[in-house]
Input
Amino acid sequence: MLTTEIFDLLKAKFPRIAKEEGTSAVIIPKELLLEFGRFIKDAPLIFDDLHCVTAIDKKEKIDLVYIFYSNPLQHSLTLKIYLGPEDPKVESLAAIWKSANWLERETYDLFGVTFLNHPDPRRILNPYDWKGYPLRKNYSAPNFIAKPKL
Amino acid sequence: MADLDIKEKKDIFTEEFLINMGPQHPSTHGVLSLELKLDGEMVLECTPHIGYLHRSFEKLAENRTYTQFIPFTDRLDYVASMNNNLGYCMAVENLLKLDITDRAKYIRVIVAELNRIASHLIAIGTFAQDLGAFATPLFYCFREREKIVDIFNEICGNRLTYNYIRIGGVQSDLPKGIEEKIKNFIKYMRSKIDEYDWLLTYNVIFLARAKNIGLLRKDIAINYSVTGPNLRASGVKRDLRKDRPYLVYDKFEFNVPVGVNGDAWDRYKVRIEEMRQSLKIVEQALGSLPQGDPTVKTGRVHKPAAGEAYFRTENPRGELGFYIVSDGSAYPYRLKIRAPSFSNLAVLPELIKDAKIADIVCISGSLDILMGEIDR
Amino acid sequence: MFTLLNLTNMITTGIAVLGFIAISAMFLIWWERKVSAHIQTRLGPMRVGWHGILQSVADAIKLLLKEDIRPAGADKLVWWLAPFFVVVPSVMAFATIPFGKTLIPKDLNIGVLYILAVSSVCVLGVFMAGWGSNNKYSLLGGIRAAAQIISYEVPLILSMITVVMYANTLSMQKIVESQSHSWNILHPNLALAGLIYITSATAEVNRAPFDIPEAESELVAGFHTEYSGMKFAMFFIGEYTNLFIISAIATTLFFGGWKGPLLPGVIWFLIKTYSIIYILMWIRWTFPRLRVDQLMGFAWKFLTPISFLNLAIAGWLLL
Output
């Protein structure tokens, strides 16, 4: 299915979603996430593979990015949720896609996005007692010296 | 409840114990730590702990220009550097909307497929090693891999971290006479794969150890976002080279081998078959290699327009994705590496329920995880 | 009668046996490294002496000079005694191995029984090492070793009894004499016993594909994980001495012992023994390892019934 077709289908079901400027990502409000996830997992879209979860720190907001892929239909979808930079919280998708477990742990570890109802809310790459969220733009590691930019 | 009563009456009780397998252990493929809860030989629970090799590549990328980050990709999946270079460069080219020459595409296919063979050789060699075939298959695999490494050494001057594929093409054209060497290698390698079938594939002990061990059902594999040979071994015919052909993969004829049961043996067998298919691709690519300049002249500093790109390539271990966000400067604003081994390892606790200690090394070996790209 | 002559005799025999064990173990270690290297398209040790022939000597010196580290939580006495329990029985087993017509330390009339009794003590040492190290990997290795060695003892003994029944004697020397005309292995009944013996003996000395007690890829080094220096060397010597002994017994029981044309008996004996060792090495460096439950299943569900059947057939044939 083409991206536009997917979007139209989703728009009919969830009127509150929007398309992001410049990319093909679909933006949804964060309280819709679980319902949205259950909907796209089943027919007609069958996004059975939550391929990637990550975040982008845009200083004034944090973009949470989900990338879905459908094995039977071979189409993909990029989903975004805009979160506030202060204490971002969102529901976990681990109940729907098991792959979300580790991917969300990584996002929590590096960005400090808290996933509610996550089965195993620990850090994953950094030590369990690490302070701070390294991929935030305002994070400064004790021994990290940024190179002068071009 | 019944046997609990017996235990109390007899005044003998059994106790579960925890054992830390790794991060320093001969068969955890690097620095993976598995926390096992054992009842004698039986494994009750398994918790992987990762991050011992975390080098924060994603943060480092934000302080490197697009070209400067290529050597870092070598160190992700360090036994398949070419494929990592390829994935990253194609993602950046996507962002730059840069077209490369045909010759570059063919060269990229050739080196990527050769590196896929090299990577699979290590996968099956270490897998056999994990099953206790004392290093012999491993050395055979390394003997063959050495030939590939020699070819790469001639092409780009490096033996492990190639840094050969660049934004806009490749580092330099293929040296003279390398086609002949690759052709000889293809002929040599075909006979050697048959030798592995003799030594390992249908060996009774090997079958007893690997058949029906670590069964990964199709739906579980997809749900955990397992990709690559591990997913195909479970019977899902998903290969980006076929489904979403990049470079010139649509011009070649090759099969996507799939497994039946999704056990450790199937994962091994899929890799063996994939090596055969890769040889086929390399042979075809060499046959139709176009002449011309393999590089597009680009500036040293790339400044893509503000935007985002997500590009996936089929790595030997699965689908490697690069999510790059550009803000218009010479540095990536954000670079996310979607490493295939990361998701492939996440499924491990699911597979080793009711397994024995010996099965754990068998299963984790058959998943062919590589800590370099898991921890990044 | 205990005389001074007897005493000197005993001492010289003892020294000769110990000297032979040391040299044999060192040679076997070097040889195994060479054999494995050539199987794996490597060269193996090449630096110390001609083709690295003195490598084992260098290793022995290194191990002697190494610090002897004892884990803090180890059971001191058990930990200390374990290597001796592995080495001493294997040395004792030499007492009834016939190297030649007269070259036998002591031709006991219960030789086979003696060897079986003595070599069973090894398992104690292995288990003590596993228990005393206070290491979970060692403990697992020790448990595995105890289970494995005891299980394989059954088919091992049954196959040896088959030979004893045919030879009608327990003396090693007389068993060799009984093979004057034809080797035991050429007799169909005893050939099966021979195969069972080799298989279970391989398991008895923990060699691949039955090396689960020290399975490197699973248990790091199994029961001797925590040992270093000379104690580790003693496990090593014990392992290779045991390897020599099971091959020597196989030679004696099934391959005509020291008997052979032209060459002196001792040469024949060594040729046959080292050939069997070579085959065991070949197997070790080719096959993957079995899993612990498969190994036990193989012993109890396959080897033991077959050896009982074989024994019954032998009894029926001899009646």
In short: The interface with chain B takes residues 22-23, 25, 48-52, 54, 56-57, 65, 67, 71, 74, 78, 97-99, 101-103, 106, 110, 123-127, 134-135, 144, 146-147, 149-150 of chain A (CB under 8 Å). The first helix of chain A runs from residue 3 to 13.
